Amino acid sequence: MPGKTKWDGLVKGACIAVVGLAIVWTFVPRVKTQGIKPVAERIRKMPDFALPALDGKVWKLSEHRGSVVLVNFWATWCPPCRAEMPGLARVSRELSSGQFIIAGIALDDDGSAAVKPFIERHPTPYPILLPPAVFPLGNGIESLPTSILVDREGRVAKVYVGQLSERELKRDAEILLAEPAAQSGSLDFDGTRIRPRVHQGTAAADVSSNASS
């Protein structure tokens, strides 16, 4: 079973340049930010990416510039990931008319073979994306779940490591939605992903009642 294998430090697929890897690691903080960063302190742009979704369409981050976006890294084998999904779905529905978007990036090694049946049982109102083995942004994720909140200008406003609460997400999203609309522009990248561990500091209670596998 994928969830029972130790993946820390295991690099899969082709090796990437050290410079490219450094860009990803400096982009993704290793600790959870405590609040929404003031605009003047949002110095990092979220790298652009285009990934296929379960519905067959291609989802590209830069096409949603002007909206507030939550990029949620998760996997079907991760209990706190499954536990937070109902709350993410509710916030997605509640703020759908206010230019708030969630994109879930599934880091299952089995790809659609694992993710598609899970989503069929537990559908989400937001797109589920399937990255290739070569995907540097995923390589910078040390634990799951990890979510990155991006403002209207494409800047990283907050990073959540561990299970994200519905209340916190809604509050933070509404703060960013109140800010001015964005300008276009993005970055491209390439690299290799390793599989992250499940974050141990989150409560995985009520997983079965929410979205158990």
Key features of this structure:
213 residues, alpha/beta, five-stranded mixed β-sheet, two-stranded antiparallel ribbon, 6 helices, 9 strands, 27% helix, disordered N terminus, disordered C terminus
Characterization of this structure:
- By secondary structure, this protein is of the alpha/beta class.
- The protein has helices at residues 18-27, 79-94, 112-121, 136-139, 166-177, 207-211, and strands at 50-52, 58-60, 68-74, 100-106, 128-129, 143-144, 146-150, 156-161, 197-198.
- A five-stranded mixed β-sheet has the order 5-4-3-7-8. Strands 1-2 form a two-stranded antiparallel sheet. A two-stranded parallel ribbon has the order 6-9.
- Helix 2 (79-94) packs across helix 5.
- The model is unreliable at 1-31, 182-194 and 202-213 (pLDDT under 50).
Strand order of the largest sheet: 5-4-3-7-8
Distance between the termini: 13 Å
Order of helices and strands: HEEEHEHEHEEEHEH
Overall strand count: 9
Q: How would a textbook summarize the main sheet?
A: 5 strands, mixed
Dominant shape: globular
Mean pLDDT, to the nearest integer, reads: 77
Helix content: 25-40%
- Helix count, DSSP H or I runs of 4 or more residues: 6
Unreliable residue runs: 1-31, 182-194, 202-213
Rg, alpha carbons: 16 Å
Strand content: 15-25%
Please identify the structural class as seen in this structure: alpha/beta
List the helices and strands and how they pair.
Elements: H1 18-27, E1 50-52, E2 58-60, E3 68-74, H2 79-94, E4 100-106, H3 112-121, E5 128-129, H4 136-139, E6 143-144, E7 146-150, E8 156-161, H5 166-177, E9 197-198, H6 207-211
